[in-house]
Amino acid sequence: MTVRSLITKFGKTLTILSKSTGTIDSSGGRVESWATATGATGFVQVRSVTDDLAGGAERSTRRATIYFKGKPTIAVSDRISYDSTTWEVSSVRVPQERTNADALCFTIVEAVEVFG
Q: Residue 34, Cβ neighbours under 10 Å: how many?
């Protein structure tokens, strides 16, 4: 099966959230907010689950590869939301770096699940 047919058959509507603001609060913490940018059909493949330590406690972290048809507007600072799950984009690449959204073009996004 091709990537394009996987997107067509198993794709879901995903919401791409673009980063709208990012500031530092009075105690030095980061305050960020995202605005809904666009919706796009993508095929999500959860590829690994690891147990990381955060604050002395184990927390499972899921990583996924998301495939989009064409070249949607998406950047590393964005987030993707679907099925009550939010994913932070860690990389965006287009095989063969095609410049337009032609029939054979697709975009690969690597993402990590966001908690809280």
A: 19
The set of residues, in sequence order, having a beta carbon less than 8 Å from that of 36 and lying 6+ positions away, is 15, 16, 17
pLDDT digits (tens, 9 = 90+) for 70-112: 788 888 888 998 888 889 999 998 776 655 555 567 889 999 9
Please name every residue paired with 74 in a beta bridge, in sequence order, or none if there are none. Answer: none
- The DSSP bridge pattern shows strands 57-69 and 79-82 to be unpaired
* 22: its two tokens: 């990012």
DSSP state for residue 27 in the 8-state scheme = T
DSSP letters, 29-66, are -EEEEEEEEEEEEEEEEEEEEEEEEETTEEEEEEEEEE
pLDDT in tens, 1-34: 788 888 889 999 899 988 777 677 777 777 777 7
- CA dihedral over 46, 51, 53, 59, signed as positive or negative: positive
The reply to whether the predicted model has a pTM over 0.90 is no
Nearest Cα neighbor of 40 from 92, 115, 2 is 92
The residues pairing with 3 across neighbouring beta strands, listed in sequence order, are none
